[in-house]
Amino acid sequence: MSVETATSAGAAVATPPDERPPLHSGDRLTRAEFARRYALHPEIQKAELIDGVVYVASPTRHRQHGRLHLILVAWLGVYSAATPGVDGSNNATVLLDLENEHQPDALLRLEPIHGGRSRVTRDDYIEGPPDLIVEVAASSAAYDLHDKKRVYARSGVQEYLVAQAYERRVDWWELREGVFTPLPLEADGTLRSRVFPGLWLDPAALWAGDAAALLATLQRGLANPAHAAFVERLRATSGATPAS
């Protein structure tokens, strides 16, 4: 099977599989070359460029990744639906700088009109730091907690959440003076975003796989006056009028 790529003149050229340049973990590439090679390998489901180094993801397991990912995406989706001016995405490519092209598990971002620093490019990628990035990691040894964390802090990602499957631990950091600082666990056992008021997470419900309980905690956050005030600020920025 050949792969078609576009030339500078716009014509499609078939590239035989045995002539395609490889894309392997550990390769050191520019972002442009990484994007070119990634496009030539549709069989690779997920690859990222982190500080100029390629990471090709291994196959993911159901309970250690897939189920957690699904629950967290549902959690973010409900929050986004209840909060105008907040955009979310699942496994979207994020262009941070010339050496970093990431594909985080999920994210939330404020539109630029509301102060967000990321934008959607003409070819439908996210460019610039999203306000919240969420990753599911197999363990604390994963690069999500090391290489990615350093890049996200340097790039200005405001909050970073990592769910570690083996340790059954959630770490949620906020950026303070260029350094990620852990968000405190509240008295009721929840973690609460500072960037997105009302975005409350119940780690115990997450590890129990109880999506209903997780979303019930989120609904409590959405009913909190801080979320209502946040929505009003977003509407005022966009010039929208409150619903009657």
Account of the 3D structure:
This protein is of the alpha+beta class. The protein folds into 2 domains: 13-56, no CATH class; 62-234, tt1808, chain A, CATH 3.90.1570.10. Helix content is 29%, strand content 27%. It has 6 helices and 16 strands. The strands form 5 sheets. A 6-stranded mixed beta sheet has the order 5-8-11-12-13-14. Strand 12 (159-164) and strand 13 (169-176) form a beta hairpin. Helix 2 (62-82) packs parallel to helix 5 (211-222). The N and C termini lie far apart (57 Å). The model is unreliable at 1-12 and 240-244 (pLDDT under 50).
In summary, what is this structure?
The protein has 244 residues and is α+β, with helices and mostly antiparallel strands. 29% of the residues lie in helices and 27% in strands. The strands form five sheets. It has a six-stranded mixed beta sheet. A four-stranded mixed beta sheet has the order 7-6-10-9, with helices on one face.
List the helices and strands and how they pair.
Elements: E1 3-6, E2 12-15, H1 31-39, E3 47-50, E4 53-56, H2 62-82, E5 86-90, E6 94-97, E7 100-102, E8 106-110, E9 119-120, E10 126-127, E11 132-137, H3 147-155, E12 159-164, E13 169-176, E14 179-182, E15 191-192, E16 200-201, H4 203-208, H5 211-222, H6 225-238
Parallel strand pairs: 6-10, 11-12
Antiparallel strand pairs: 1-2, 3-4, 5-8, 6-7, 8-11, 9-10, 12-13, 13-14, 15-16
Helix pairs in contact: 2-5
